[in-house]
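Justification of resources, computational component.

The compute hours requested in this renewal are based largely on the per-chain cost of generating structure records like the one below. Each record pairs the submitted sequence with a full structure-token output. That output is archived, and it is also reused by downstream analysis tasks.
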Amino acid sequence: MDFYSVEFAVFFSFVILGLVALKKQKYQHFFLIAAGYFFYWTTSSIFLLILIYISIVTFYAGEAIYISDSEKRKKGILILALVASLAFLGFFKYYNFGLENLNYILSLAHIDIQFTPLSLILPIGISFYTFSGLSYVFDIYYEKIKPEEYFYKYALFVSYFPHLLAGPIVRAGQFLPQLKNQMQITSDGLKLGITLIVWGFFKKIVIADNLAPFVSSVYANPMGETSFTIVTATILFGIQIYCDFSGYIDIALGCANIISLHLPQNFNRPYFSKSPTEFWRRWNITLSSFIKDYIYIPLGGNRKGEMRTYFNLIVAFLLCGLWHGAAWNFILWGGYHGILLSVHKRIHNRISLGKTVDTWLHTHGGLLIKIVITQYFICLGWVMFRSQNLQDLLY
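The structure output for this chain reads:
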């Protein structure tokens, strides 16, 4: 079941009717947990057990960290929770990728050993609900929030169906306080929710799905295509991926608004960004903030000198690329953005083109030039993201 199916429309209508019928808050919570589990079961079957496992591990890890009076013990529990939570994600998403690279290294060394990849199916949404669970553990460790008292409320946070399959990455501090309020279907919530859902469908079905065939045909075999065709396909891919992903998010936000449990915004007109730094404040906001708070800052952020800052940025975005997929083009794309952000941080406010030009760059015309230059580099990154192999990329 996905957002674009008739089955989901029936399912969501049933959820609305159930919430209207159930007046007691606790019953509403249990009903939504059951709805979330059913929704995930229809898409992932037995992998529902992983979702429940992540909920249990992160809930009790957070509680154990909170009651511990030893910093060493807290850190040990945090590491244990990280390993236990990331184990399934690492296995299903990266096992075969690691095996393929190991086989390649062995062949280069003329070692006659080859490991056979497994036929693995990646559980849908595992990256999103795993990261949501880990954010809870991190936030307790960093004393940003206190543990949730009731497991069923935490289980609802992890299994809340609008964000289960493709985000956004929700944090406990954003979601759990909302459970104190009675869930009501209001006219304002319906208006906003339906508007977002319709807009999301338009972006996904009318725009993204109609651009996809042309983009796929060019990138499936770019050899021999003209520069104009490839540039056009790349720009259209940037529009396609935005409309596809943000369209899904709009539907998720719309559903959440209707049932009064709101989700964080994930996109804010990213293609109007005037710098790479601004782009990542507007694009996939919940992921970029997760990377900043739980990878970049713990590595030292910008607190340990200029060169260390650039190193931290590049490492953080290499991991960002790997999060998007188990392939070298994603890692290259992540590293590229880490370097792009480092270069921008290095030259920002340090290079002057003369007082007249600097002043003009703050006019509407200058801002437009900044947007065009920024999006040029963003689109160059999309070439790396979309290319299927190194030969295609170099071509």
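Residues 71-108 form the longest helix (38 residues). The two ends are 39 Å apart (CA to CA).
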